[in-house]
Amino acid sequence: MIRFEPMSDDDFAAFLRKSIPEYAYDQTRSGNWTAHEAMGKARAEFQQMLPNGPQTPNQHLRVMLDDRGHKVGMVWYFVNTQRERPTAFLIDFFFFPEERHKGYEAEAFAVFEAEARAHGVQRVELQVFSHKTDEVALYLNHGYTQTSVFFAKDLGEADKQ
Amino acid sequence: MITLVLMTEADFAAYLEKTIPQYAHEKVKAGNWTEAEALERSRKEYEHFLPEGLRTAGHFLFMLVNETGAKVGWLWYALDPKKPEQAFIYDFEIYDQFRRRGYAIAALSALEAHARPCGVKKLELHVFGFNTAARELYKKCGYAETNVMMAKSI
């Protein structure tokens, strides 16, 4: 059984240590940011979204625990009840490397969705970098559909096709 | 052969009349908006992005004209005010009756020829997930997927 608990300050610190550099890398990899600016921009975005850390209103930061109380992953979602259909934005959802492929995914989604429904949420939205094909597949396997796809083309060289 | 010709006020009025309900419909189909709110939100988005209509700074609204002078579609793109080397394609359509003639590829190449002298080094765009034909077209024309928005009703 998977259950969620609010992140402690230590969990939150560990979360930032993992997620900020990863987000900086992903934004660079997808061509949005330069390597030089990426860490600063990633840090600024996290700070802007989570000014009061795990206590920021409408932001939900959770640790996922297995039935022995062992921490297996983390979840971050944001609830927007101002939309006509209240929506949760799933910002981060991951298992620690040694806890992957243990079949926790379906249960973790069920716990997340139940928690979100309890906040009045009717729809979940999320964004995935296209180079993270495992993540895209994970969400597709759990009932998520692709609503929008973003493309980019570098015009650096005239003959590049 | 496709030429980009700036829209006239009459073109622009016809464009809005067709594209506002169409965009509303697509947002509902993608699950982003409800039927009840869609038309109003679509109208507001167009007003937001084009507050001065055709004269909105940095925005280019073109009719796509073929070799016989017929209007075969439209293309709207804009320079990113924060990142001058980037541009975003807001809307691009070849009318139904003119599809499968290579006009889409020709129009994208005409767009690149227009954008380069404006200093654009990177073009970005968005496609609804259900529009598999458009996704294939952009891949064929050298565009790479950067990110995907996904959703689920719970």
Describe this structure in words.
The complex is a heterodimer of chains A (161) and B (154). Chain A has 161 residues and is α+β, with helices and mostly antiparallel strands. Chain A contains four helices and six strands, in the order E-H-H-E-E-E-H-E-H-E. Chain A has a single domain (3-141), classed as Aminopeptidase, CATH 3.40.630. In chain A, helix 1 (9-29) crosses helix 2 (35-49). The longest helix of chain A has 21 residues, at 9-29. Chain A is globular, with a radius of gyration of 17 Å. Chain B has four helices and six strands. Chain B is globular and about 50 Å long. In chain B, 27% of the residues are buried. Helix content of chain B is 38%, strand content 30%. The mean pLDDT of chain B is 94. Strand 6 of chain A pairs antiparallel with strand 6 of chain B.
Write the layout of secondary structure elements.
The complex is a heterodimer of chains A (161) and B (154).
Chain A lengths: L2 E4 L2 H21 L5 H15 L9 E7 L5 E10 L6 E9 L9 H14 L4 E7 L3 H9 L3 E10 L7
Parallel strand pairs in A: 4-5
Antiparallel strand pairs in A: 1-2, 2-3, 3-4
Chain B lengths: L2 E4 L2 H21 L5 H15 L9 E7 L5 E9 L6 E9 L8 H13 L6 E7 L3 H9 L3 E10 L1
Parallel strand pairs in B: 4-5
Antiparallel strand pairs in B: 1-2, 2-3, 3-4
List its salient traits.
heterodimer; A: 161 residues; alpha+beta; Aminopeptidase; five-stranded mixed beta sheet; 37% helix; B: 154 residues; 4 helices; globular
Form type of chain B: globular
Rg of chain B over CA atoms, rounded to whole Å, is 16 Å
Query: So what's the CATH class of chain B?
Result: Alpha Beta
- Gyration radius of chain A (Cα, Å) is 17 Å
Strand-residue fraction of chain B? 25-35%
- Provide the low-confidence segments of chain A as ranges: none
- Looking at the overall shape, the CATH architecture of chain A is 3-Layer(aba) Sandwich
* Distance between the first and last residues' Cα of chain B: 48 Å
Q: What is the number of helical segments of chain A per DSSP (H or I, 4+ residues)?
A: 4
**Rounded mean pLDDT score of chain A:** 92
For the sheet with most strands of chain B, the description reads: 5 strands, mixed
Largest sheet of chain A: 5 strands, mixed
Helical content of chain A (DSSP H or I, runs of 4+): 25-40%
Order of helices and strands of chain A: EHHEEEHEHE
Question: Strand order, biggest sheet of chain B?
Answer: 1-2-3-4-5
Distance between the termini of chain A: 50 Å
